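Could you please consider the sequence and fold appended to this message?
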Amino acid sequence: MENKKSIFIIIEGCDNVGKDTQQNLIIKKLKDRVFHKIHYSALPFKDKDKHIIHSSKMYNEMFGIMKALKDSSISIIFNRSHLGESIYAPLYRGYSGDFVFDIEANHLPEVRDQVYLITLVNDPKTVLSRDDGKSFYEDEEGIRAEVDGFVRAHRTSKIKNKLLLDVGKMGPDEVSNIIVDFLSDAQVVYNEQQKKIEFE
C-alpha cells in the first residue's frame, strides 16, 4: 500500500471473534497511516419500518463518508458495518436485511479499490466459550446461524478486496499478520481461500 490515498477497512463478524483486538493491531502495525475508528452499534428501534429507514440512512451515509474522503489521506476502520444488517435482521428482527447489498452496489464504483472487507469467523463452540452474556445468540445453534450468515454475506458482497478468515486457535498476532499481509498483497489468493470456509 505505497499509495497513501485513503483506505477504508471494514471488520465484520459475530461477537467474540476478536474484531476490537484486530482493529487496534491494524492501527499499531500500519504506522505510516493515521486511522479514524467508527463503531456501529445496534439501533434501538423496536418498530421494523423505523429500523429499516434509519439503517438505510446510516449505511448510505457510511459510504458517503468514504466517497467524501477518497482523495484525502484520511483512512477509517469501520468496526461492524452494513453486512451485519443482512444477518441480524432475519435472525432477530423478522425481515430481510439484504437491502444493504443494494446500498453497497450504488456506492462501490467510486471507492472500489480503496475498500477492504475483513470478515472474522470461528467455530461456534469456540465463540460460545468466550461469550460475555451481551450477545444476541443464546446457544451454539444461534452462533452457528450467525457465523453461516456472515460467511454468506461476505461472499455476496461485491467489495473487491475481501478476506474471510477463520481465526481458529490462532493468537491475535498471528491473525493480524495475515490481515496486514492481505492489506499489502495481491488479493486473488485470499479470494480463493474464502471459498473453503465452511462450518458443518
